[in-house]
Amino acid sequence: MIFEKILVEPLFLAIILIVLNSAQKVVSKEEKELIKKVKNGNKFAFNTLVENYQKKIYHLARRIVMNHEDADEVVQETFIKAYINISKFSEKYKFYTWLYRIAVNTSLTLLKKRKYRGFSLDELRENGHFQPASGDDTQQSSQNSEFKKLVKEALKKLSPQLRTVFILRTWEEMSYKEIARTLKISEGTVMSRLNRARDKLKKILKKTGGY
Could you tell me which residues come within 8 angstroms of residue 18 by beta carbon, excluding any fewer than 6 positions away? Predict the structure, then answer.
């Protein structure tokens, strides 16, 4: 019953985050200086920002669009949009927060254009970007590995809307308010989609013998 417990209890997010090693979002003084330079037309400074966040944006997009080619397209469009609209960015906010909002919306737009196609579990296992858990405990590592495989399989069966909310809440540690602002939906809708995502994941894991 371990997976049922993880999916229905409040602690499930913390457990997932430990397993998947979510990236922190910290704004440095150096980054603020880079943004100022970009606003003044310094393309080299923007290239530095791209280098700093390209992998993170790719991983986020990859989890939403579920394949490498579309994720690459999302990354390119995200940074193009960011460069064009950098003058609109307010430095009182985190740059990565602003950037991943662009990436999420670009990913969802691409899915609508592609009419959302599914992908094989083999592709997910080969190209998935779940980070391995740290530690030397062989048994724990084995459990984490099995958990990641089950989650990968289950996530591809969620609709883009449910998967996106789940990813933003779990991987990106966004608040309900931030998710609502990013997706332009109400906080109630965010909570509803998150609960539906959890319920569906629990049912999928149950069918696959996850617990």
Answer: 133
Taking the CA atoms of residue 59, residue 60, residue 61 and residue 66 in that order, the dihedral angle to the nearest 10 degrees is 70
- On whether the CB atoms of residues 211 and 3 are closer than 8 A, the answer is yes
pLDDT in tens, 50-81: 999 999 999 999 888 888 888 999 999 999 99
Q: Where are the alpha helices (DSSP H) in the chain?
A: 2-8, 12-20, 29-39, 43-65, 68-84, 95-114, 121-127, 138-155, 160-170, 176-183, 187-207
- Domains of the chain and any CATH numbers: 1-21+138-211 (1.10.10.10), 26-130 (1.10.1740.10)
Model pTM above 0.90: no
